[in-house]
């Protein structure tokens, strides 16, 4: 069977675990390390696919749980797959729905067979199994699908984390068996909460199954960042070095830098677009809440050092006015800015790795960003 994706490490940093790679998919190549903006409902909120591409986006993440509920995988398959349905011709990764099920703790019940849950939309009852999650993702037609997993909360007792990790491994076997789409890659998800022996066991057992790539899940769920970094320190070296390493649900600039330094190749997070809709933007000197009254008469750009469309054309005062009057252009401009900022950061990180100066770049960036 031909490989659904090909991943090549083209440069390894001498001082850290950071590396540059190329991920080749049926819908194009991706330079890694890469940040994937989240298109939950088959759309990166407020952005057209052409705008995402122009800002620097190469691969988009879409949400299996939400697309399963509406409009349904059958309709998307009938439309020719997710790429045609949403008008995006680049690579797409779909999550398995496991995290969304985890976040709906009051509405779901986990068994060995799968997860019974009620829709957050209309309360209707559903049952999602590893097989069903795999079949749905095949119908969606993403380039990369994720195995169905159980994400343990933080904090949780050792016994809970162990049971979730072991079930995730059993479910991974079932996903592999159910997966039949030769032009779609399947990634496993390493679990184990913050317990080193569980993470090691998960990485070892899933590594032996030879998935196309490996997600590191169960982080960025409430634990302190220092603990997340510690987990990455001992987990990343256990992931097969010839496979992509994907840190799930992480997207703040400091975490992106720390993750790359530890050898992560792929990231995703709703953070840049979500805070944009709340009137907060990233700048070279940290976060700026442009909705605040202090910017009502500020005629400087969101970030004087930024070259995005919003910063070239508009002022903080104008964008604040748009946000306060609920004009859609306001959240479009803050979203454009935040995505441009993150994509440029990832490009700058790749250049720093290429030239052996990641540690220096990270120190300079964070010193300025935290002001």
How large is the radius of gyration? Answer: 20 Å
Structural class: alpha/beta
The DSSP helix count reads 15
Q: Shape from CA axes?
A: globular
Q: What fraction of residues sit in β-strands?
A: 15-25%
Walk me through this protein's architecture.
The protein has helices at residues 49-55, 64-69, 73-78, 82-86, 98-103, 130-140, 158-178, 196-207, 225-235, 253-261, 271-277, 309-313, 316-324, 328-354, 358-369, and strands at residues 6-12, 19-25, 28-32, 34-39, 60-62, 92-94, 108-110, 115-118, 125-128, 144-146, 185-190, 213-216, 245-247, 266-269, 280-283, 286-289. By secondary structure, the chain is α/β, with parallel strands linked by helices. The strands form 4 sheets. The chain has an 8-stranded parallel barrel, surrounded by 5 helices. Strands 1-2-3 form a 3-stranded antiparallel sheet. α10 (253-261) packs parallel to α14 (328-354) and α11 packs antiparallel against α14 (328-354). It is globular. The model has no long low-confidence stretch (mean pLDDT 96).
